[in-house]
Amino acid sequence: MKKLLVLACLLVIGLTGNAFAGSKIEIKGSTTVFPIMQKAIEAYMAKHPDVSISLSGGGSSNGIKALLDNTTDIAMASRDMKGKEHDLAKKKGIDPVRLVVARDAVAAIVNPANPVKALSSAQLKDIYAGKITNWKEVGGNPGRIAVISRDSSSGTFETWQHLIMQKKTKVTPMALMQASSGAVLQTVGKNKYAISYDGLGYVDNTVKALIVDGVAPTATTAKDGSYPVSRSLFVFTNGAPKGEVKSLLDFLMGPEGQKLVAEAGFVPVK
What we know:
By secondary structure, the chain is of the alpha/beta class. Helix content is about 30%, strand content about 25%.
């Protein structure tokens, strides 16, 4: 009998078939891509109960590291691979093949009680650099801004660092770093002075997404790139996918799989 065990986004989802009779697939990496892959696996396993699939989060950097260490079949990433990662892959004889599975908008989010509705990229940069520290400086109610950020192993952190912090500006050491997208959501939802950022698929009514540079984070603005912090979501394999890995990824990129991308709150690419 097939079993599904969901412990947490940072732990492991184990999906097993009859007596472990079929293939086994290891998938690791981005907590942003995690819910997309979780839905795809559940649907795929309904059609292929003889396949064993292990899914774990931990961040894009950890997923890519696992691919380079040859300890995963599929690495999930909410950022592209870096030059130094490509160099290391070459040294190790790994051939990373990239597949774009969805589009996303990294939404700037605040607590619903916060009256601020819009910020500029420059204001967000100054908030995260620690130059703007009180909400009254950007049209909000008086109160010290609680800066919440993803940790540095996160592809979402890398995207924010690249597009908002302009690569070189560092996030203030006063920022509270969170290890997962879900943790970010919970923290902002409980603190009326908090600000953070999260993938579009995680944004719900416990937080409020801000307009940035006059553009709201939506499926449309993520797909056309008009939202300032829009990006692609990836999976990587060592060489062209084969066998059961190819079958799973073909399913994800097909009509049913791309419908599941939308159901997870992200933007299909097909």
